[in-house]
Amino acid sequence: MNSVVNLTIAGRTQVGDISFIDLVAQQRRIRSAIERRLQNVLDHGRYIAGPEIDELEETLAERTGARTVIACASGTAALIIPLLARGVGAGDAVFVPAFTYNATANAILLAGATPVFVDIDPETFNIDASDLQRRIDAVKSEGRLQPTAIIPVDLFGSPADYPAISEIAKAEDLFLLSDGAQSFGAELNGQQVGNLAPATATSFFPGKGLGAYGDAGAIFSQNTLDRERWASIRWHGTDEARKDSVRVGFNGRMDSFQAAVLLEKLSIFDDELAARRRIADEYDRRLEGVGRPQADIKGAVSGQGYYSLCVENRDSVVQKLKQAGVPTAIYYTTPLHLMPAFSDYAPANGLPVTEKVASEIFALPMHAYLTPQQVDYICDAVIEAVQ
Ligand SMILES: Cc1ncc(COP(=O)(O)O)c(C=O)c1O
């Protein structure tokens, strides 16, 4: 997604190509080390369940403080496995924001349960804890579904309000599964994502903060009891000998090549995360009062998967930025309850905050390889476009 910048904005001259996400610069930096890792896999030939999988799970557990980590085929698999392990299914209500990627709701429906969409907070763009409580109460009084689980999403890398959500989950006896697909590396009150909820799913899709060279994901647990069941479901529901089926499962495994890539990428992850955070700080500083950027809750430090902000004239701003050579993306133009696949579950009165944010939001380029000149240029271009 490269665009050539050859314009002059606010007196500044050419800043070269600006990428929305730059996987090319990143690969250049670690290419030879990745080649060595991939060569190792070719040499030992254990393409499935190779030593890289154990090493990755141990490294991720160490890094996050999680008691158990299971490497999976994708972020979607990482959401479905804990739901199946928990027996979430037909007749169960799972509370989820509609302002997320479709995979969050797909996982609920694939498990056989029913998504109950919850509105978001207008500042954090994450699930609104007071609306969550209202919708739990409404499901209970209607009596058709059994409230069973909550899946908050750490949108764009910013942790959801786990202190408030955990309290509700505890009081209502609901399973709390965090969708941390976009927030690996983020923290809340000094604790890493992977350790903010009893179970956390993350995605290593190539464009994520920590991305594989294909599909991959992981599940993190705060206890060791989940490990056996999750590992079994990931391997077609088999027993430890991987022979007899003891439960229903599927092929939810990560392959050794992806684990090899991720291990190498982890060696530069903190450096890249620090760079993304510096860029986000600069966007915050330069664009103060220009738009409404996503706010983090108190004590949270975002993983800066994306940098999104709201402006009233979003479509014209995005168009002008395109003309200025600044690539943008919109996450998400259509909230899930307004999509055909999920419209059966749309709340009667819609989700007013979600719908408003969806009409105003857009994301700026965000990756560790943006130069200070490019960040400056992007900010100038946004300021000019918003006027
Ligand atoms: C919020 C969210 N949940 C779930 C997923 C699914 O992850 P994957 O594409 O690895 O299956 C994604 C991926 O884009 C996501 O952004």
Characterise this structure.
It is built from eleven helices and 15 strands. It is 40% helix and 14% strand. With 387 residues, it is α/β, with parallel strands linked by helices. The N terminus is likely disordered. The strands form four sheets. A seven-stranded mixed sheet has the order 3-11-10-7-6-4-5, sandwiched between helices. A three-stranded antiparallel sheet has the order 9-8-13, with no helix packed on it.
How does the SSE layout of this entry go?
Layout: E1 2-3, E2 18-19, H1 23-44, H2 51-64, E3 68-72, H3 75-85, E4 92-97, H4 102-110, E5 114-118, H5 129-142, E6 146-150, H6 162-172, E7 175-179, E8 187-188, E9 191-192, E10 199-203, E11 217-221, H7 226-234, H8 256-286, E12 292-293, E13 300-301, E14 307-310, H9 314-323, H10 352-360, E15 361-364, H11 372-386
How many separate domains?
2
CATH evolutionary superfamily of the largest domain: Type I PLP-dependent aspartate aminotransferase-like (Major domain)
Q: Could you say what the CATH architecture of the largest domain is? A: 3-Layer(aba) Sandwich
Q: Helicity level, as a percent range?
A: 40-55%
Flag low-confidence runs. 1-13
Q: Structural class per helix/strand content? A: alpha/beta
- Average pLDDT: 95
Name the CATH class of the largest domain.
Answer: Alpha Beta
Concise structural overview:
This protein has 387 residues and is an alpha/beta fold.
